Amino acid sequence: MNEIYLNACSHGLPSADTVARMRAHLDLELELGPLAALQAVADELSDVRTRAEHLISASPGTVGLAATTFSSWLSIVARLPIAGKRLLVAPHEWGENIAALRVLADNAGGTVETLPELNLSAPDLAAWSACIDEDVAAVFTPYISSVAGLRYPVEAIGALPRPENTLVIVDGAQALGQTPIDVSQMGCDVLVATCRKWLRGPRGTAVLWIADPDRHGFSIKEVEPFDANIALRLGLGAAIKEATLQSVEKIEHRVQSLARHAHALALQDDVMPLGEAPPISGACSVYVPSQRRERLQNALNEAGIHIKWPDAGQDEPASETGKADHAIMRISPHVYNSTDDIDAVFDLLRAS
């Protein structure tokens, strides 16, 4: 049975070249030992960082490498002066981030507030701007949301008037690798992103970017972890090289076309998609009546089809994404998928 993998939002499938590069380094560690093997690839490791900088159009010295989005995000947030301050979160901010902010704010006498919902088809940020004043330590927003693949206007958010010490911190986990990112044009202060999703890097790899380390009072060296899995970082270099050769613009066009195919099928079959407009990312999520979920999942298992059932209450607790008596089925294809793969999902959805 041929497996059909439609879960790039969770973990994009690494290419054969990426896996081969990791395997080769592990073989080198067996042969030479980890320290000698590390010395042998020092130049290549430096090149990985340079590739990451070029991928997001960052200046040299502003990009760090980490293991996960959350670990790099937390390392930065822990350095914010939040005592007595307000922390503003977008409605679709990742749930793990919000939970950590609440703990940090409670301990420091700060508060966490959810910003007003936006019409992301035609966002008006006036209500957001009205929330930002001298007592706001940071504004937190995703670049692309997790559950439904909604794109936030990060450039416009970065351009909002704000006090000098108020940071805009962007979670780019669902953006890196599937949409071109130019941090020099974002107007934001921090970007963090895992590399295992749309970039198709190894699990346990992430990047972080700080616009102006001197002004913010912490440098990449301070927030980047000292320890690292060298095989994973070399695999990351291979993944970035591959995405660059393919061009992220072409990847974006391909995954959006597949997601829009899924969206069209959902409307054709009278299945309610999340969001009215066709997807502008590589994800298409639909509401499925809860009583049909188990039957449909069993059929997907038998067919070897992998999708995801996000838990909106956990993943995006500040949003209004959930729908009573319905589960959310997310289809997130990548360049290795075809319209036939998506058709197979909807064939089972009709039959379940």
Mean pLDDT: 94
The tally of domains stands at 2
Task: Write the CATH homologous superfamily of the largest domain.
Answer: Type I PLP-dependent aspartate aminotransferase-like (Major domain)
- Helix percent reads 40-55%
Largest sheet: 7 strands, mixed
Low-pLDDT regions? none
- So how many helices? 14
Q: Span between N and C termini? A: 20 Å
Give an overview in words:
With 352 residues, the chain is an alpha/beta fold. The chain has 2 domains: 4-13 and 247-351, Aspartate Aminotransferase, domain 1 (Alpha-Beta Complex); 16-246, Aspartate Aminotransferase, domain 2 (3-Layer(aba) Sandwich). Helix content is 42%, strand content 14%. The protein has 14 helices and 11 strands. The chain has a 7-stranded mixed β-sheet with strand order 2-8-7-6-5-3-4, sandwiched between helices. Strands 1-10 form a two-stranded parallel ribbon. Helix 5 (95-108) links the parallel strand 3 (86-89) and strand 4. The longest helix is centred in the C-terminal third of the chain and has 21 residues, at 248-268. The mean pLDDT is 94.
Summarize the structure.
The chain is of the alpha/beta class and 352 residues long. It contains 14 helices and 11 strands. The protein has 2 domains: 4-13 and 247-351, Aspartate Aminotransferase, domain 1, CATH 3.90.1150; 16-246, Aspartate Aminotransferase, domain 2.
